[in-house]
Design a protein that fits this description.
With about 110 residues, this protein is α+β, with helices and mostly antiparallel strands. The chain has one domain: Alpha-Beta Plaits (2-Layer Sandwich). Helices cover about 35% and strands about 25% of the residues. It has a four-stranded antiparallel β-sheet. Strand 2 and strand 3 form a beta hairpin. The chain is globular. It holds the Pfam family rhaM.
Length: about 110
């Protein structure tokens, strides 16, 4: 049975910037959505608690492929620059994508 690879990341939204963060995602660029789809990313969800953000998505083509596509995309680089004034996110120096969280529990 095929099990889709899952990917989770975390970030910090700057104080008082959560509404702006949400607004920017409500108005996410079409070319950004296209890159995420090209990367095989689906079921992408972001939650917040306080000023912490937790993102989760599934990778139809594998996490390595998703990270590679995002890491090489000028659209993603532009998006990350655009979001810098509302959030801080650690990036993986190897892939250029969001740093992947380590899974510590899973109940299928």
């Amino acid at each position: 049975m095929f099990s889709m690879e899952r990917y989770a990341w975390k970030a910090i939204v700057h104080e008082g910037k959560l509404l702006e963060y949400k607004k920017r995602h409500d108005e996410i660029w079409e070319d950004m959505k296209s890159v995420l789809k090209e990367a095989g990313i689906c079921n992408y969800t972001i939650w917040s608690v306080g000023n912490e953000l937790f993102g989760y998505y599934e990778c139809e083509k594998g996490a390595e492929y998703a990270a590679k596509v995002q890491g090489k995309s000028p659209v993603v680089a532009k998006w990350n620059e655009y979001m810098k004034d509302v959030m801080t996110m650690a990036m993986d120096s190897q892939t250029g994508a969001q740093a992947k969280l380590e899974q510590v529990f899973y109940l299928p």
